[in-house]
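LOG
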Amino acid sequence: MTVHAMECVHRTHVGLVRPHNEDHLASFPGLGIMVLGDGMGGHHAGEVASRIAVEAAADELMSRQEEDWADELDSLAVAGEAVEAANLAVCAEIDRYPELKGMGTTLVLALFRESHVYFAHVGDSRLYCLRDGQLDQLTRDHSLVQELLDNGLFGSVAEAHRAGIGDNILTRSIGLDLNVKIDVGDQQLHPGDLYLMCSDGLCGRVPDQTIGRIMQQQSDDLDATADALLRAALDAGGRDNISLILGRAKETG
C-alpha cells in the first residue's frame, strides 16, 4: 500500500479568553498525515503535552511510511501504535519532570493510504468528513457527556448541560496512564471528500450544521474554508483555543 498525498491547510488561534494556546497540530500533505492535540493542565503543561504527543505520533507515522503494509488491518494497527507512542512519550516526560504530573492531551490522527483514510483518537478532538453535502463525525468523543448519552441517562447534550454536566470532562486522555484505550477506524475515500480535524474550540462552540454549511459553501478553496471556520468559532465567543486542519486527498491518475 502506498501513501495518498493530500491538499492540507491548518489554522490555530488562542481564542478570545485563554492566555495561551495549548493546542498543537501537524500536517504532512505529501505523506498523507494529519495530527492534532488539545492539551490540558496548569502552568502551560497542556501545551507541553500536546506538543510532545503530536510530534511523537507524527514521527511514528513518518518512520513507517517506507514499509509496504500488507493490508487494511496493518494500517489500522499503525494508526493505533502512533497514538500509543504519543502516550508513552507524554508519560515519560511526566516521569522526568514530576511538576508536570496531571498534564494530558487529546489526540486525533489520520493517515491517507491508497483509497482509504485510517484514523485513531483519544479524547474529544474530532475528525469529520464532508461527502456529497453531508457532514459526518467519524470519531466519537471520549467525554462524560457522550458516555451519559450512550447509556441513555440523558436524551440530548442540551439536557446534560441543564443538569450541570460540562463538555470538558474527558473519560480518556493521553498521559493519564501508561495503558490507554484507543479507538481506531477507517473509511474509503470518495472523489471530493473533505476532511476536518479540529479541537473542541471549534466543534464545541459551533454546531455541526453550521460547520457543514461553511465547508460546503467554501469547499473549493481550503484557505477560505479554514478562515471561515475560524471566524465562526471566534464569533461564537472564542472561549477556548481553536485549531483545525482541512484535508482533501489528491486525485490519482
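LOG (cont.) second protein
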Amino acid sequence: MRERLIRTTALGTLLIAPMGASASDEKSAYSLFRPTPDALLREMSTDRPDKTESPYTVDAGRFQVEMDLFAFTYDDTGAVATRTWDVIPFNFKIGLTHDTDLQLVFGSFSRIATRDGDAETRTVSSGNGDLVVRIKRNIWGNDGGRTALAVMPFVKLPANTLPELNDAVEGGVIVPLAIDLGGGVGLGLMTEVDLLKNEERGGYSPTFINSATVGFDLTKQLGLYLEIFTERNTERGAELVATFDAGLTYALADNVQIDVGVNLGLTEAADDFALFAGQSTRF
C-alpha cells in the first residue's frame, strides 16, 4: 500500500541542464482564483499509472482527479499469502500557480485477506488508508522543451483504519525528470528519499527509491509504458523491493484518460503481482 503512494531516478538527473522554453509571462499570470483558459492549457499529464511521477503540474485554477477504479495485489511468501483489494484510491490535484500544484492522495478503501499456511488461519481486515499531502513545483519545461524537472516534497498524515498500517507521520521528497527522446518515445526518471518509521525499533530510517519508465505513443490516443522500480530501506534487515511494471493508457478526450497495468515482483520482498485499472479526469 505505502509504496503505491511513494515513488522515484538517478541523482545524476539533477545535473542535466534545462533545454525547454520557459513559461510565457501571459500564462504565468493565472492563479487558483484566475483559472487558465482552455486555449492555453498544456497537454494533460498524470502521475499514474506508472510509479514514476510526472514533472508537469496542473494548470493554475484547474483540478485533476486520478484514481484506481480497482486494484488487486497478491503476495505469497510460502508460509503466508496476502490478497489486497483497493477501491477508488485517488489523487486530487489543485493548480495553485502556473508551475505549482497541491495534491491530496487518499486510500479510500482496502480489503486485506491473509492466510497463514503454518497456523492454518485466515484473517481479513478492511478500512481506509492514510492521507498524503504533496506539493509539486516544476523547475523547468512545464510548457515546452525536450526536458522537464520538478521537486515534490510530501508528508503522510496517519488517517488509516487498517491494522497493517502504522500511525506515524512520515514524509520525503520526490524529484521526477522527463526527457523527450523523439519519435513518440519518452523517458521518465525519478529519485526519491523517504523518512519512514522503523518497524522493529523506534525512530526513523531513510528509504531510497529509484525508477525509470519508457513510454511509447502507439497511436494519437493509445500509449504503452515499461518501467523498472526499486525501493531500499536502510533499516537493519530490510530487503530490496524491485518490480517490473507495464501498462496501457488511452485518451478518451483531451481531459479524460483511462489505463490498465500490471506490476510484477522481481525480488522476494516485492509483492508477486498487482493488477489495476484507473481513470484520470481534468476539470
